[in-house]
Amino acid sequence: MAARITARDRELLAFLAEHRLVLREHVQVALGISADAANARLRTLRRADWIRWQAPQYDGHCSGYQIRSSGLAAIGSPLPPPRRPDPRGYPHDVGVAWLWLAARAGSFGAIGGLTSEREMRSRDGRDGDHEAPFGIRLGGTGRGGRERRHYPDLLLRTAGGKAIAVELELTRKSRTRLETILAGYGVDGRVDGVLYLVHTESHAREIAAAASRVGVSSLVHVQLFRWGGSMRSFERNLSPVGVRAHGRASEAGR
User: Fold this and answer.
1) pLDDT for the residue 243
2) For the whole model, what pTM was predicted?
């Protein structure tokens, strides 16, 4: 007999569907429950075979929960199952889930909507080459002859309807790659601002300099933040979008 799915199960599965990897601590914040209650709910979803526990890799990283195809089917989600996590991207995957929760909680001010990278990629893939893809066009073609596109970690829609691309930039890109992405944002009129979150001042200066070189300084806001790996540290270090920005991004938080 098929497992019975509750409203809370659906809420949790929907959250898991948005992210590549989810920790028990994420679940606590997402549902507003205790650690014991989060563990119990995750056990229930595992018994139903809707999610899987990703055991730590050789370096102790990559542990967490991922939604299965059966879990996506249980809530009618068209998203694909997340790929198995890569140890090199583990901090980023965990950080993006915290970022999503922080945005939902109002750390960027009032918002009208949130779209994850997984949702953006999936919708573009389902809709094909429609006129207004979520992906930022970079010019040229990539693998399989497909148009090259870049996806932010989060697309935030403010209460006033402005679109803000949020980039959790934990590692450095090459100068060419960074400038190509920034130039793509510059010619994409749908994006009203781009917020880069970085750990170090040198990285912040690097992105600001690249934005200046390609003429998009008015669009890009770089925010230095110190992340201790928790929701609280995200909330302490984030400010409403557009506080110190100018140009197209200056209206983002209004």
Assistant:
1) 34
2) 0.86
